[in-house]
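User: structure tokens for this one?
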Amino acid sequence: MDAAGSLAPTEIKSIFARRRRRRFVVPGLAVIVWGAFLLITQGREPKEVLLVAFAAVAVFILGFKAWNWRCPACGGSLGRGLQTPRFCPNCGVALQ
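Assistant:
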């Protein structure tokens, strides 16, 4: 069995494309939800509640990134930068 396991190259690229889209859409939606929370409460909530809500959104975004930004073939991390890799830095499979 090769590094890509049982996934075909086109399937790997398709999964990676979905993960690449989700990389920005889901955290963006989380920030929008947090912003809506701020608008709805209009400062009526204590600062501690707002801080906890912000921390929860930040933890969600970091956890989501750790879960989502992985190679479809080997499951290894694709790194921390904003640059989109063409190949997995762990197994070398083509991602695009």
